[in-house]
Amino acid sequence: xAKEITIEELRTMARRAGLPLPDDELLRLLPGVKRxxxxxxxxxxxxxxAAEPATIFTTFKIDLK
Length: 65
Hints:
This protein is an all-alpha fold.
């Protein structure tokens, strides 16, 4: 799992996005950001490069008669 985000890192990301948020707002956002980070990591574990795609795209016309 990825390293947990800190308040300092969240502040930096917010400023880069043009959101100069006060510390009290960042502290309220931090639990949700950590939860989203954890959920994204869990999803990444489900998908591997070894898994075949569910569908195949083709540009050829297929007659299904």
